[in-house]
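queue> pop job 88
queue> type: inverse folding (structure -> sequence)
queue> payload:
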């Protein structure tokens, strides 16, 4: 197929490391489930709970050691996925067979040799790494220094023409350090006056804010943490952004990024604003209007020194496809991340198996792929199945694919992301994360109704979950993407039972060793959801529809520019 990319395989880079920060074993083979079990797996082209169960049990077994990229368990996962793709009849869609090499960079800040100091009218203050500030650099340099960079408050740090909003207007921030509020103005107003109301837009994500600060030429970018609009406490910042950090290595070595990025605690921000003669709460309120203009924090400047060590590894996305008959160069995409946290905990159980997150989603795309590959009638369009790596490290596998896609993004009709399906049993509903985003929801509504289900908007849209899973990597490039999740309106027990199950998973098992496969799981609801997603993709694959983002979406203009012939 001419639309698929082909190239010589990339050489693996040295010093493979764990995504969780420890050294990866280079020669030790995983132990646990005997290899014979993998060789004799039997599934059918029919969508079935039994097939889902078999695949989830394998992927979540101790044999894969938590599926961390760069570990023996991670490599075994890739090998098993390749074998499954071949067994069920998918054609290779990778650069090297089914594989797309994803080069990863691990950066570790040496906090003992690094500092962030703020000069104030009352003297210099050193921000304590961890309790008061967490910072890093995206530049691949062992030493990065910034001297006497003026601090400037830029409100929410947003430039959004579709909302007539520009927090950088009238100011050249080259060489300056910008201080930015978390989330977006809509969250603070709680009404549909600005942006998307309480529901977070991409402009509210910390990733966007650092990217925009770099585009504006800032020397540094500091986001003020607040628990409610961030949707997590300071302890998450302190725990997640310290220690080894995996990332993609930019072609320019990060030279286009600000010299340093980071978070400061709310208490730290209030103290710094007070040192500049300003009230933080008042300045925050003033930022809630398009008329806001950025303002210097008079008398305050930052000096930073960052000492960072780097190491490199290679992981892999795994891709296969079913060729279309009438329009083989048009693609419907199914994706899920195969990775999890690996060996990341002390105690009796050191493996975080990731049964729900995301053995379920990986099993689901394999189930869907096997059905499409063995249809009596081939689809008109091609269908590509993508199991991505390093989601848990910041959506890195999908981000790499978005920058170097195996099929052109303009020829990707739409995509479905499956991430962490809960075995709650049959439900009457499905939850659409980021509801109101694209015309894919119109098609999903029809299919769900035909299966006796209704769609429910994400109840926590202000937390921006739509921007926290792999589909966002392609959405940011313009491709319409859908992320539909397990419902909570349980057939047995109603919403109370569904919420209780979901809450218990989050509190007791999410990102913990307790996220293990249980043979007592009721997978009837999960296979019902898989049937809905399968049928929605099937209707696209057998049609000539090109769904778009809804008018007003921050991604609509990107898609229109990507496919100008559709205008």
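queue> result:
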């Amino acid at each position: 197929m001419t639309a698929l990319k082909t190239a010589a395989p990339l050489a693996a880079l040295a010093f493979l490391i764990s995504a969780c920060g420890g050294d990866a074993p280079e020669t030790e083979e995983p132990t646990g489930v005997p290899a014979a079990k993998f060789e004799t797996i039997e599934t059918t082209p029919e969508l079935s709970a039994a097939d889902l169960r078999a695949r989830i049990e394998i992927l979540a077994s101790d044999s894969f050691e938590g599926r961390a990229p760069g570990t023996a368990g991670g490599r075994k996962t890739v090998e098993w996925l390749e074998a499954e793709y071949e067994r069920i009849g998918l054609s290779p869609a990778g650069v090297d067979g089914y594989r797309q090499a994803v080069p990863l960079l691990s950066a570790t800040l040496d906090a003992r040799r690094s500092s962030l100091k703020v000069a104030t009218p009352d003297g210099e203050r050193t921000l304590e790494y961890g309790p008061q500030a967490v910072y890093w650099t995206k530049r691949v340099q062992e030493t990065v220094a910034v001297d006497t960079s003026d601090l400037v408050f830029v409100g929410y740090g947003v430039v959004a023409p579709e909302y007539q909003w520009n927090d950088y207007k009238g100011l050249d921030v080259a060489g300056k350090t910008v201080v930015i509020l978390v989330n977006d103005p809509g969250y603070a107003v709680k009404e549909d006056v600005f942006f998307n109301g309480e529901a977070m837009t991409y402009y509210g994500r910390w990733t966007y804010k650092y990217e925009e600060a770099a585009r504006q030429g800032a020397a540094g970018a500091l986001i003020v943490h607040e628990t409610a609009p961030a949707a997590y406490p300071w302890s998450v910042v302190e725990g997640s952004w310290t220690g080894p950090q995996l990332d993609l290595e930019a072609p320019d070595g990060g030279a286009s990024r600000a010299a340093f990025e980071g978070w400061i605690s709310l208490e730290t921000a209030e103290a710094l604003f007070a040192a500049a003669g300003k009230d933080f709460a008042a300045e925050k309120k003033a930022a809630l209007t398009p008329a806001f203009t950025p303002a210097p924090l008079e008398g305050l400047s930052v000096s930073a020194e960052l000492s960072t060590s780097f190491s490199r590894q290679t992981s892999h996305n795994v891709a296969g496809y079913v060729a279309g008959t009438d329009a083989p160069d048009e693609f419907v995409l199914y994706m899920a991340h195969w990775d999890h946290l690996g060996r990341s905990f002390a105690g009796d159980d050191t493996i975080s198996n990731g049964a729900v997150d995301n053995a379920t989603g990986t099993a689901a795309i394999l189930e869907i792929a096997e059905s499409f590959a063995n249809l009596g009638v081939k689809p008109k369009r091609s269908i590509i199945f993508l199991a991505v790596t390093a989601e848990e490290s910041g959506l890195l596998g999908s981000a790499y694919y978005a920058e170097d896609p195996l099929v052109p993004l303009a020829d990707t009709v739409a995509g479905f992301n499956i991430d962490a399906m809960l075995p709650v049993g049959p439900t009457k509903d499905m939850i659409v994360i980021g509801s109101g985003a694209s015309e894919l929801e119109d098609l999903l509504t029809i299919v769900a109704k035909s299966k006796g289900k209704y769609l429910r908007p994400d109840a926590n849209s202000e937390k921006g979950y739509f921007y926290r899973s792999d589909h966002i990597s392609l959405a940011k490039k313009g491709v319409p993407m859908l992320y539909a999740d397990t419902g909570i309106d349980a057939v047995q027990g109603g919403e109370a039972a569904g919420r209780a199950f979901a809450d218990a998973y989050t509190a007791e098992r999410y990102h913990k060793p307790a996220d293990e496969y249980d043979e007592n799981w009721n997978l009837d609801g999960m296979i019902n959801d898989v049937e809905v997603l399968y049928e929605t993709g099937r209707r696209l694959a057998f049609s000539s529809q090109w769904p778009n983002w809804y008018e007003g979406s921050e991604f609509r203009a990107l898609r229109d520019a990507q496919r100008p012939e559709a205008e």
